[in-house]
Design goal:
single chain; 487 residues; globular
């Protein structure tokens, strides 16, 4: 009987990565972000193959895209890239399953962990959209796998593979540097001199990669300082979205982002009555699972402070300074689950949590993003592209990015309201235009929090009137019409 249960458990461990991959391939989000359009545009039109924050991420999809073209098949760049995100997730789950096996986590506990990981909101969202986070996490996980093997065997070859994978992950996305730093510190405090030397050597590979790209791709002057400027993205996005700062709103938004890493928080204006009940029910079940798990949790003192905990704290601090950017926390479920896999607690707690995540995230995130056309970017683009310039004062960059994807050029009729001066310049045209700036801040929307108070005041001062039309039946597009103020 026990052997039969173990066989079923082992079969499920192998099947779950395949099942999750097929599920997410079947339900891609129909609401691409601006970045998703931008990456696909680069692939389609042949620019920005190497971007500073995720230097090598476009290479795998570029090779596949070009290989398909050689065979005569013209793949859709956005659909191909999105599909690869789902496939990368399958690889990530397979790697995590291997790590849990090496850590001698029992089969049914391992299944619960894989279910929670696959159903967590951040993993679900970024596996169904063209983004740059799942593959680097998978590559870092390969590094963790070989680091665990090295800890058991002390085989330097396995240690070098671990370091190489952790380094490569940084070249696929810079956020993975915190995983690299945490394990490097673990080796340093563990007095493992050979591994410390390997880590120092791998740092040279990062510098070399950026240096070569700076010289031969961006034609930046041949100096290490220029490579550093590329690494910090100064050449491409001065004061860009990753710039660090700290205000009173950061702590609140980071807390919200931590919750959103696990469970979706609906920001819908029209579907809240449908979405919130399942999210609340799922949250209650998750809370019960966490309660019974913590009640019986048995800590092992030697495992309390570990590289996993160090990485978790570094990611949270980094996200805090970046206005609670949830994208920096995508890998958090992997780290948290690996950390708690070291301790003893009832397996049932994992299944309660997984059940709650399924009840909340499958309908309110996966199905919702697949079925509901939230921003109607394509329809909005078609509707406004023939209007007098500029037709839009729009804070969401999807319009520009979609124009770039469709035509290879930015939309010259959509202006980003980065300052009151720019808003005034549009208003002085003395005719109606459209904007998506909400005069009433949505507390659940990080995008609304990022709009400066001065811009909100400008919108309120200019008497925004809600536009009555909807471009698409299920659209959540909130468009406001601004006309010359008669007062």
């Amino acid at each position: 009987m026990i052997n039969s249960q173990n066989k079923i458990a082992n079969l499920l461990q192998k099947a779950l990565p395949v099942l999750f991959t097929l599920l997410y391939l079947s339900f891609p989000s129909q609401n691409p972000t601006a970045d998703a359009y931008d990456y696909a545009a680069g692939l389609k039109w042949g620019f920005d193959l190497f971007e500073a924050h995720h230097l090598l991420h476009q290479l795998p999809v570029w090779f596949i895209y070009k290989a398909l073209q050689v065979t005569g098949f013209q793949a859709d760049a956005l659909e191909l890239s999105t599909s690869l995100s789902s496939i990368y997730l399958g690889g990530l789950l397979l790697i995590v399953a291997q790590i849990l096996r090496i850590k001698q986590v029992v089969s049914f506990q391992s299944i619960g962990i894989l279910l929670i990981l696959g159903l967590s909101a951040s993993i679900m969202r970024y596996s169904t959209i063209n983004e740059v986070y799942i593959l680097p996490i998978a590559i870092s996980s390969i590094g963790i796998l070989y680091f665990e093997k090295y800890n058991l065997s002390k085989n330097l070859g396995q240690g070098m593979v671990a370091v190489l994978a952790l380094t490569l992950a940084i070249l696929f996305h810079q956020i993975q540097i915190w995983w690299w730093v945490a394990i490097a510190l673990a080796c340093l405090f563990g007095m493992d001199r050979k591994m410390v030397v390997c880590f120092f050597g791998s740092a040279f590979l990062i510098v070399l990669a950026y240096h070569l790209i700076a010289i031969y791709y961006y034609n930046i002057p041949n100096s290490l300082w220029s490579s550093w400027l590329l690494f910090t993205d100064v050449y491409q996005k001065p004061g860009g979205t990753s710039a660090l700062s700290l205000t009173s709103s950061h702590l609140l938004l980071t807390a919200i982002s931590f919750i959103r890493t696990w469970i979706t928080i609906p920001v819908s204006e029209y579907y809240s009555i449908i979405l919130w009940p399942v999210v609340i029910l799922g949250s209650i079940i998750i809370g019960y699972g966490v309660f019974i798990g913590l009640k019986s949790l048995k800590f092992s003192p030697k495992f309390v402070f570990s590289w996993e905990l160090g990485t978790i704290l570094m990611l949270l601090v980094f996200s805090l300074f970046a206005m609670g950017n949830v994208e920096f926390l995508v890998g958090l479920p992997v780290l948290v689950l690996l950390y708690f896999s070291k301790f003893s607690y009832p397996n049932s707690s994992l299944y309660w949590i997984a059940g709650g995540l399924a009840i909340a995230n499958l309908p309110a995130l996966l199905a919702y993003q697949h079925i509901i056309n939230i921003s109607s970017t394509e329809e909005f683009y078609s509707y406004h592209k023939e209007e007098p310039r500029p037709a839009l004062l729009i804070r969401k960059p999807e319009m520009d990015a979609y124009s770039l994807y469709e035509t290879g050029k930015m939309a010259d009729w959509a202006i980003y309201p980065s300052s009151v001066k720019i808003c005034d310049s549009v208003a002085r045209l003395n005719r109606c235009f459209y904007t998506d700036i909400n005069p009433q801040k949505n507390a659940n929307s990080r995008a609304d929090w990022l709009v400066s108070p001065e811009i909100i005041q400008w919108v309120q001062k200019n008497k925004i009137n809600r536009d009555s039309y909807r471009l698409y039946l299920w659209s959540e597009l909130a468009v406001y019409r601004v006309c010359p103020n008669p007062l």
